[in-house]
């Protein structure tokens, strides 16, 4: 069942499989969930909405069908004459570059809407996870995949440097601009779930089929959703803020954040529940 306000999307199924958990499913399986024009803006609208919805405490992101999380960019659609990447556009290079820069920034902001989401997002990847699949999952907080998932930073094979997030986020989520990061980005070679885990891109590799992947993801999402939303959203905000700050700057950011958030009743509820050995409940945030 779709929650209120989430039923008008053509390319995404948005459901509530459990209290406080929203499941966003990319729904273009006949094209291996490859993205084109209108899909980008639907995705941004969804994540901007779940970010501030007080009913939502954790989000799952997956792809419909058995073949792919997403195969990335729909190359056939992108090559059509009306696409900003291929259309003749302005009459001189400066004006054409301005059009392209604005278009790239627009698409970057769609992927960044996942990274900005106040709620934790768990990417559940299966099948082909190519190109944009790496961009989207890198913008998520946690990544699980099936054992037979195939990954690829595909962009050099279609003549461009990845430009909507992978080259900025992938090094951060795996621990730096490592030799491995450069190897997979420069070569566009396919790598396995096992290799993704060895290099810290995914935290869990699930045996079995897609049903097992969704079950594992939902179980963990429910676990997070049972925690204090003040604590969970604050932890996500502080961890994300650490990316661009020194330790000293982030400690100060943490102090300012918790100066407000420690006044929540969640702290007392969590502490008392431990003493009483009871599961606490928390108000919406």
TrEMBL record:
<keyword id="KW-0576">Peroxisome</keyword>
<keyword id="KW-0443">Lipid metabolism</keyword>
<dbReference type="GO" id="GO:0006631">
    <property type="term" value="P:fatty acid metabolic process"/>
</dbReference>
<comment type="similarity">
    <text>Belongs to the enoyl-CoA hydratase/isomerase family.</text>
</comment>
<keyword id="KW-0413">Isomerase</keyword>
<keyword id="KW-0276">Fatty acid metabolism</keyword>
<dbReference type="InterPro" id="IPR029045">
    <property type="entry name" value="ClpP/crotonase-like_dom_sf"/>
</dbReference>
<dbReference type="InterPro" id="IPR014748">
    <property type="entry name" value="Enoyl-CoA_hydra_C"/>
</dbReference>
<dbReference type="GO" id="GO:0051750">
    <property type="term" value="F:delta(3,5)-delta(2,4)-dienoyl-CoA isomerase activity"/>
</dbReference>
<protein>
    <submittedName>
        <fullName>ClpP/crotonase-like domain-containing protein</fullName>
    </submittedName>
</protein>
<dbReference type="InterPro" id="IPR001753">
    <property type="entry name" value="Enoyl-CoA_hydra/iso"/>
</dbReference>
<keyword id="KW-0007">Acetylation</keyword>
<dbReference type="GO" id="GO:0005777">
    <property type="term" value="C:peroxisome"/>
</dbReference>
<comment type="pathway">
    <text>Lipid metabolism; fatty acid beta-oxidation.</text>
</comment>
<dbReference type="Pfam" id="PF00378">
    <property type="entry name" value="ECH_1"/>
</dbReference>
<dbReference type="GO" id="GO:0005739">
    <property type="term" value="C:mitochondrion"/>
</dbReference>
<dbReference type="InterPro" id="IPR045002">
    <property type="entry name" value="Ech1-like"/>
</dbReference>
């Amino acid at each position: 069942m779709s929650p209120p306000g989430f039923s008008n999307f053509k390319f995404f199924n948005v459901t509530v499989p459990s209290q406080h958990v929203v499941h966003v499913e990319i729904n273009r399986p006949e094209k291996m969930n490859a993205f084109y024009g209108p899909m980008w803006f639907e995705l941004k609208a969804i994540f901007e909405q779940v970010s501030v919805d007080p009913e939502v405490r954790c989000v799952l992101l997956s792809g419909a069908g058995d073949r792919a999380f997403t195969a990335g960019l729909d190359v056939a659609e992108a090559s059509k004459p009306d696409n900003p990447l291929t259309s003749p556009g302005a009459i001189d290079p400066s004006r054409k570059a301005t059009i392209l820069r604005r278009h790239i920034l627009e698409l970057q902001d769609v992927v960044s809407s996942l990274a900005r989401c106040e709620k934790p997002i768990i990417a559940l990847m299966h099948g082909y996870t190519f190109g944009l699949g790496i961009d989207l999952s890198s913008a998520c907080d946690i990544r699980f995949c099936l054992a037979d998932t195939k990954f690829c930073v595909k962009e050099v094979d279609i003549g461009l440097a990845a430009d909507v997030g992978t080259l900025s986020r992938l090094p951060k989520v795996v621990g730096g601009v490592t030799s491995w990061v450069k190897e997979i980005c420069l070569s566009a070679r396919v790598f396995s779930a096992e290799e993704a885990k060895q290099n810290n891109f995914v935290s869990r590799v699930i045996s079995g089929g897609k049903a097992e992947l969704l079950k594992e993801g939902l179980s963990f999402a429910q676990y997070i959703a049972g925690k204090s939303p003040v604590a969970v959203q604050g932890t996500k905000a502080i961890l994300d803020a650490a990316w661009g700050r020194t330790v000293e700057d982030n400690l100060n950011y943490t102090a300012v954040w918790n100066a407000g958030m420690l006044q929540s009743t969640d702290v007392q509820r969590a502490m008392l529940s431990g003493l009483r050995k009871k599961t606490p409940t928390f108000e919406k945030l």
